[in-house]
């Protein structure tokens, strides 16, 4: 097992020479991907001190692998350094960290997710590019005493879009769920899965009713429902928008909560490499009916003296 952790701060690079554990959490359902590096608080009775090297805002790259064959698992920024229970933790976030700064108050009308996101980039960091193919329209969108993070969080909560950053290419992505394809990976219960908690569920067995509520510019409440009447109720309150866009959001919410697929996760190792948005080709010789291609929703990667492990969660069945 090999690892390489590099920090960049004030024009200089630093390598971390010891760790106790690394945990990296990535998900298309979360706005931010995180990494937590745990270190012993003291080595040879000497307290570790990063005051003059690593601090909030330092860039970080984490590479993990075997036999010096390393893959970049995380890149981002140091959010905080804490001491707790005889250990020291370095808390890191992806490029969303850069967007935790205040933006100008604004009342945008009419507007769209693409225009709102681009305004954040223009104010915070123009080196980022925007990739948005899920452009929900707003009759009015208000920003008041908010950070870029607050605005993106509101957009994600209201539209259920996948909003995430590609730190390496400096791209802010906004897509409808399950459409963005990051790569492919192959899993077999008999070959490269340590254990599984997967259970196959069918959409026909789960009844869901989705309601979208919006208040138009005149203060009138609009409502749109879809799904199965009397099923599990999901209600989303969104900003002022057209009925067409309300229907688009309802369709996304219904798909996220009612689909044929495997519910649960698998425990694997660092190889094969996988990220959220990957298409996972899954097979099980004992249960051939579970064979299929599944969308990877999230991964939690841990690395320590006990080994490297990756917990992979599947979502909708793609084929």
UniProtKB/TrEMBL annotation:
Q: What is the protein named?
A: Phage protein D
Q: Which organism is it from?
A: Flavobacterium azizsancarii
């Amino acid at each position: 097992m090999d690892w390489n952790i590099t920090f960049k701060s004030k024009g200089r690079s630093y390598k971390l020479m010891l760790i106790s554990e690394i945990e990296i959490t990535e998900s298309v359902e979360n706005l931010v991907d995180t990494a937590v590096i745990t270190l012993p608080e003291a080595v040879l009775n000497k307290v570790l001190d990063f005051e003059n090297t690593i601090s909030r805002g330092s860039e970080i790259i984490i590479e993990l692998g075997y036999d010096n064959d390393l893959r970049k698992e995380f890149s981002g920024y140091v959010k905080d350094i804490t001491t707790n229970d005889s250990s020291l933790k370095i808390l890191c976030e992806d490029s969303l960290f850069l967007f935790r700064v205040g933006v100008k108050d604004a009342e945008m009308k009419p507007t769209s997710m693409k225009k709102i996101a681009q305004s954040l980039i223009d104010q915070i960091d123009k080196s980022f590019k925007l990739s948005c193919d899920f452009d929900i329209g707003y009759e009015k969108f208000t920003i008041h005493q908010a950070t870029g993070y607050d605005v993106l969080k509101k957009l994600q909560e209201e539209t259920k879009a996948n909003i995430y950053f590609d730190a390496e290419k400096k791209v802010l992505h906004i897509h409808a769920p399950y459409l963005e394809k990051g790569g492919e990976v192959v899993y077999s219960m008999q070959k490269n899965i340590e254990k599984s908690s997967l259970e196959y569920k069918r959409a026909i067995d789960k009844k869901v009713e989705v309601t979208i509520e919006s208040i138009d510019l005149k203060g009138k409440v609009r409502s749109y429902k879809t799904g199965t009447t009397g099923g599990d109720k999901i209600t989303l309150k969104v900003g002022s928008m057209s009925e067409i866009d309300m229907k688009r959001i309802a369709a996304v919410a219904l798909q996220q909560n009612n689909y044929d697929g495997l519910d649960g996760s698998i425990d694997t190792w660092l190889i094969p490499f996988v990220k959220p948005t990957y298409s996972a080709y899954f097979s099980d010789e004992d249960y051939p009916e579970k064979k299929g291609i599944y969308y990877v929703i999230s991964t939690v990667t841990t690395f320590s003296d006990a080994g490297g492990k990756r917990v992979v969660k599947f979502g909708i069945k793609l084929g």
